Amino acid sequence: MSSLSAPGTIATPVVVPNAKAALWLVGTAFLALLVYYFIGVDQGAVSVFGNDMHIHEFVHDSRHFLGFPCH
Amino acid sequence: MEKRIILRGLLAGAVAGLLSFVFARIFAEPQINQAIDYESGRDAAQELLDKAAGLPVEAAGPDLFSRTVQANVGIGTGMILFGAAMGALFAVAYLLCLGRVGRLRARSLSLLVAGGGFAGFYLVPFLKYPANPPAIGHPDTIKERGSLYLVMVLCSIVFLVAAVWLGQRLQARFGNWNATLLAAGAYAVAIGIVMALLPSLGQLADNVHTFGNHPTETPLPLENSQGAIVYPGFPADVLFSFRLYSVAAQLIMWSTIGLVFAPMAQRLLQPTAKSPVPAGSPDPVAA
Ligand SMILES: [Zn+2]
Question: I need a surface site. Which of B68, B71, B91, B125 has the fewest CB within 10 A?
Answer without folding.
Answer: B68
